[in-house]
Write a structure and sequence with these properties.
The complex is a heterodimer. By secondary structure, chain A is an all-beta fold. Chain A has no helices and eleven strands. By secondary structure, chain B is mainly beta. Chain B contains no helices and eleven strands. Chain B starts with a strand and ends with a strand. The chains are: A mainly beta, B mainly beta.
Chain lengths: ~110, ~120
């Protein structure tokens, strides 16, 4: 199975900060990567697919980049509603999908 | 609008089985694969498997093979996930999630179903 390692697992930031989360794959996955945001008690929400394409309705302060084994999710200016947990997911192995361990973004 | 509505919370004893449903509406049911993802309390997301609602073809996570069965009913636009031989570490919220047509992610999710396994 392809393993995904997210870092950091936890970060503390302030409103207005630029935040970057990294996701590393154990083998090359081209751009078959998605990012999700999850708030407590809610289902995850798709933010980015194909590594860098913004899902419809998602604010433009979110962006994704990368290919192969290293990917990043960037929030250009953190807003109060962005405090949540973020997960990456690989879709390269179409029938054996995996998620990263998650990054919890909290208010400093 | 697209919706996926899951069945309600369940409490089961160890060794029992549970069957969770996910009823889809607002789109053509047979053209999107449906996945199941679970999340244990305070933990991350775990992919369980996928079903092609049109053909019934499935693929399951290795650790759940032999215990999980996913099925679909095209007449009611509903997918089901049954997990048998339940253990305490199966306690989790179970989600269905619709795969985008280009297989690039899950664009719609059910609300989640809490399954508690306790003696």
């Amino acid at each position: 199975d392809i393993q995904l390692t997210q870092s950091p697992s936890f970060l503390s930031a302030s409103v207005g900060d630029r935040v970057t989360i990294t996701c590393r794959a154990s083998q090359g996955i081209s751009t078959y990567l998605a990012w999700y945001q999850q708030k407590p008690g809610k289902a995850p929400k798709l933010l980015i697919y194909a590594a860098s394409t913004l899902q419809s309705g998602v604010p433009s302060r979110f962006s994704g980049s990368g290919s192969g084994t290293e990917f990043t999710l960037t929030i250009s200016s953190l807003q109060p509603e962005d405090f949540a947990t973020y997960y990456c997911q690989q879709l390269h192995s179409n029938l054996l999908l995996t998620f990263g361990g998650g990054t919890k973004v909290e208010i400093k | 609008q697209v919706q996926m509505v899951q069945s309600g919370a369940e409490v089961k004893k160890p060794g029992a089985s549970v069957k969770v449903s996910c009823k889809a509406s607002g789109y053509s049911f047979t053209i999107h694969y449906m996945h199941w993802v679970r999340q244990a309390p305070g933990q991350g997301l775990e992919w369980m498997g996928v079903i092609n609602p049109s053909t019934g073809y499935t693929s399951y996570a290795q650790k759940l093979k032999g215990r999980v069965t996913m099925t679909s009913d095209t007449s009611t636009s509903t997918v089901y996930m049954e997990l048998s031989s339940l253990r305490s570490d199966d306690t989790a919220v179970y989600y269905c999630a619709r795969e985008r047509r280009d297989s690039s992610g899950y664009d719609y999710w059910g609300q989640g179903t809490l399954v508690t396994v306790s003696s």
